[in-house]
């Protein structure tokens, strides 16, 4: 990261969520967005941060007000008006800056030019159930991929509680480091599972993956210092990136759940694979991130568990690739 850009992030107070100067930054980004050209990761990160700030402003204005809650298919899978309003604000910034890019939003689905080399993954309110109950943690997440590789991202985490909300802003650019409120972050240096704090999550469908993860949860609760379940994949990964936890894993997440967080972990010095040890892309259906020191030890239990699921006919291959979007083979392009 350049010194000037680091200083600009450090000057931004965590709770200052007004969208400042977005048009000027958008014009700057567009000026380098010539058709077919490679865009600097730092330029992409600036737009990702501005877009996330626009969504976070919407969330902050709604956080202590009554919710209009609807259900996507089950009583545990919620969506609110704030999810939709946040996504609209996020997409407005992205589209102004890069009108020829592809977009995959949790609420709005696929839009833009699927022939683009760039795909923006947007979760306008990761942890909607927490938000609906006024319970931390929840976040606004914006990431951009070049083909399958996350190259820039921002996660704005809401902390505190009713009447006392504040935020933490995590940013990362590939080969540029990871930051929280402008300060560099690194994964922990813990080498032992027995000395680690771990994090996981559970999907809405109580299927075979859910049952398998319950067994993993029990196992790691027995052998570690604890396993947490916060309800926001992006925040879980940011906590690993910042050294608060040593590892996080989960089955059947969506690209918008993972794209922003996995880049934070990689740029903070950690490791990311699927739960059966393969090279990871955001279109995979399992993920484990760690501080790196524990990764092989965790896979000793997770890999056979995941392989057994596949042998039973559970599809954990790539999915949710937008039709027409160009996905190159392999998870990493850099």
User: What's the story with the biggest beta sheet?
Assistant: 8 strands, mixed
- Kindly provide the radius of gyration, computed on alpha-carbon positions and rounded to a whole number of angstroms: 19 Å
What name is given to the CATH topology of the largest domain?
Fructose-1,6-Bisphosphatase, Chain A, domain 1
The total domain count is: 2
Q: Report low-confidence residues grouped into runs of 5 or more.
A: 1-35, 329-334
The CATH class of the largest domain, by name, is: Alpha Beta
Number of helices: 9
CATH-derived architecture of the largest domain: 2-Layer Sandwich
Shape: globular
Mean pLDDT: 86
Strand order of the largest sheet: 4-3-5-6-7-8-9-10
Cofactor: Mg(2+)
GO biological process, one term: signal transduction
Enzyme class: hydrolase
Pathway: Polyol metabolism; myo-inositol biosynthesis; myo-inositol from D-glucose 6-phosphate: step 2/2
SSE blueprint:
Blueprint: H1 3-10, H2 22-32, H3 41-62, E1 69-71, E2 78-80, H4 81-97, E3 102-105, E4 109-112, E5 118-126, H5 128-133, E6 138-146, E7 149-159, E8 166-173, E9 177-180, E10 183-184, E11 198-200, H6 208-223, E12 227-228, H7 233-241, E13 247-251, H8 255-267, E14 271-273, E15 286-290, H9 295-311
Parallel strand pairs: 3-5, 11-12, 11-13
Antiparallel strand pairs: 1-2, 3-4, 5-6, 6-7, 7-8, 8-9, 9-10, 13-15, 14-15
């Amino acid at each position: 990261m350049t010194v000037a850009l680091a200083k600009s992030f450090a000057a931004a107070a965590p709770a200052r969520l007004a969208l400042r100067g977005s048009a000027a930054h958008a014009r700057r980004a567009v000026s380098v967005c010539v058709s077919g050209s490679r865009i600097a990761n730092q330029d992409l990160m600036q737009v990702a941060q501005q877009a996330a700030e626009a969504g976070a402003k919407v969330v902050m204005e709604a956080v202590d007000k009554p919710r209009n809650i609807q259900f996507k298919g089950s009583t545990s899978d919620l969506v609110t008006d704030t999810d939709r309003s946040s996504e609209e604000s996020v997409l407005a910034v992205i589209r102004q800056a890069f009108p020829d890019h592809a977009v995959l939003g949790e609420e709005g689905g696929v839009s833009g030019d699927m022939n683009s080399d760039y795909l923006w993954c947007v979760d306008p309110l990761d942890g909607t159930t927490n938000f609906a109950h006024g319970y931390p943690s929840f976040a606004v997440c914006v990431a951009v991929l070049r083909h399958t590789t996350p190259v820039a991202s921002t996660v704005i985490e809401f902390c505190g509680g009713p009447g006392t909300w504040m935020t933490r802003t995590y940013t990362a650019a590939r080969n540029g480091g990871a930051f929280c409120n402008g300060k560099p972050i690194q994964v922990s240096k813990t080498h032992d599972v027995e000395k680690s704090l771990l994090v996981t999550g559970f999907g809405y469908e109580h299927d075979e993956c859910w049952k398998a993860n319950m067994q993993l949860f029990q196992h790691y609760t027995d052998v570690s210092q604890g396993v947490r379940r916060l309800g926001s994949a992006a925040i879980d990964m940011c906590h690993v990136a910042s050294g608060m936890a040593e590892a996080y894993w989960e089955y059947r997440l969506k690209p918008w759940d993972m794209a922003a967080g996995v880049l934070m972990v990689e740029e903070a010095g950690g490791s990311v694979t699927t739960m059966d040890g393969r090279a990871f892309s955001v279109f995979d259906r399992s993920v484990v991130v760690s501080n790196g020191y524990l990764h092989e030890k965790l896979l000793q239990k997770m890999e056979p568990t995941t392989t057994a699921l596949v042998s039973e006919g559970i599809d954990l291959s790539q999915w949710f690739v937008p039709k027409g979007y160009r996905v190159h083979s392999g998870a990493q392009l850099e």
